[in-house]
Specification:
Blueprint lengths: L4 E4 L6 E4 L9 H14 L1 E4 L6 H11 L2 E2 L6 E2 L2 E9 L24 E8 L7 E5 H6 L3 H8 L2 E5 L1 H8 L8 E5 L1 E3 L6 E3 L6 E4 L4 H15 L5 E4 L5 E6 L3 E5 L8 E8 L6
Parallel strand pairs: 2-3
Antiparallel strand pairs: 1-2, 3-15, 4-17, 5-6, 6-17, 7-15, 7-17, 8-14, 8-16, 9-10, 9-13, 11-12
Bound molecules: succinic acid (SIN).
Succinic acid binds next to strand 7 and strand 16.
Length: 268
């Protein structure tokens, strides 16, 4: 990759991108390198990028179309941007539990791009966990067993308490427990603590036991990278092969920015 610099952060996941200014139009080669870096490292980080809403959307569109979040309200004038904001008045924050964004959707987003302009003095990191690495660490027998299972991903339990009841149901979908990444061909675990409610076709005891074990895997530091935000940092992650957790350890300080969500396809 000659057009941007890419520095891996751990053996399994994460890279920082340098030699790139997202406030300026990108060349075809730079866009291709950015997309390749995301495929290679699952989550990529950039610093000192004071982007506008329009630039945020333009960069997001390098990866995929933008989708509208089914629960979180959009910001005024930009239906495909949501605010990620916490301060002294917050009762909850987005993403402070392990999850893959909107895995409840029939076609969950392929990725997300988060830009933070304001960050707390200390804390407010985001952890990302590689679901490729989690899958690769399992025994072949367990990999085979899990590959035959499907799970339900339901937004209703979590969204009703956060966003309220608008009279319509939030998304609930069924996906394979192990999904194959459509670009890299690698397999990864695709269940998460926020949205996945049960494994289909097995007893409740078995479902609860399998999910508990798989949720624990996301917490293994061997599969993770931890990002310490600065003002105007950006993270772009692949929801098909990662989970993330936004740590809310900075109350009552302010952490603020914007996220776009990138259209994906049906997991297989
Ligand atoms: C999210 O889950 O999109 C929020 C991530 C973060 O605030 O770091």
């Amino acid at each position: 990759m000659s057009n941007i610099t890419v520095k891996p952060m751990t053996k399994n996941i994460g890279a920082t991108i340098g030699n790139l200014d997202l406030t300026k139009p990108l060349s075809t080669e730079q866009k291709a390198d950015l997309k390749q870096a995301l495929m290679d490292y699952q989550v990529i980080f950039l610093r000192d990028q004071p982007i506008s809403h329009e630039q945020h959307k333009e960069v997001g569109k390098i990866f995929s179309n933008l989708i509208v979040h089914p629960g979180a309200p959009s910001i005024e004038g930009h239906k495909d941007i949501v605010a990620i904001h916490a301060d002294e008045n917050s009762k909850y924050v987005a993403g402070d539990n392990w999850h893959s964004d909107l895995s409840c959707n029939p076609e969950p987003p392929m990725g997300s791009m988060l830009y933070l302009h304001t960050v707390p003095e200390i804390g407010g990191d985001t952890l990302f966990s590689s679901m490729y690495a989690a899958y690769d660490a399992l025994s072949p027998a367990l990999q085979e067993y899990l590959s035959g299972l499907e799970a339900e991903h339901d937004a209703n339990p979590v969204y009703h308490s956060i966003y309220g009841d608008y009279g319509t149901a939030y998304p609930c979908s069924t996906h394979p427990v192990v999904r194959t990444h459509p670009v890299t061909g690698r397999k990864g675990i695709f269940v998460n603590r926020s949205y996945t409610t049960r494994i289909l076709g097995v007893s409740k005891t078995e479902s609860d036991g399998i999910l508990k074990m798989l949720f624990e895997l996301a917490k293994d530091p061997n599969f993770q990278v931890r990002f310490e935000w600065q003002p105007h940092s950006i993270a772009i992650w692949d929801n098909r092969c990662t989970q993330h957790f936004a740590v809310w350890d900075y109350f009552p300080e302010t952490r603020s920015g914007y996220r776009v969500t990138l259209e994906g396809d049906k997991p297989f």
